[in-house]
Amino acid sequence: MATTNPLQFIQQVRSEVAKVVWPTRREVLLTTVMVFILAALTAVFFAIVDILIRGGLEQILTIFG
């Protein structure tokens, strides 16, 4: 593995960081809102599934218990 001069390494890092396309404030805001909405929908979905499974198990246990 070839060793790189620390100064060259820093220059290469700076040139690579300059190529990065950073998101705009609006894109970050929209993405954040979408994540919170999808997390809330997922939580509601799993809460409903949990309620249904619990209710089904309670029905089964009352029948056999």
Describe what is shown at a glance.
The protein is mainly α and 65 residues long. It has helices at 6-19, 25-64.
Number of strands: 0
Structural class of the helices, strands and pairings? mainly alpha
Helix-strand string: HH
Number of helices: 2
Q: Which segments are poorly predicted (pLDDT under 50) over 5 or more consecutive residues?
A: none
Q: For the terminal residues, how far apart are their CA atoms?
A: 70 Å
The rough form would be described as elongated
Mean pLDDT: 94
Portion of residues in beta strands equals: under 5%
Indicate the radius of gyration in whole angstroms.
26 Å
Textual characterization of the structure:
It is a single chain. The N and C termini lie far apart (70 Å). The mean pLDDT is 94. The protein is mainly alpha-helical. It has helices at 6-19, 25-64. It is elongated and about 75 Å long. Helices cover 83% and strands 0% of the residues. The longest helix has 40 residues, at 25-64. The protein has a domain at 23-64. It contains 2 helices and no strands.
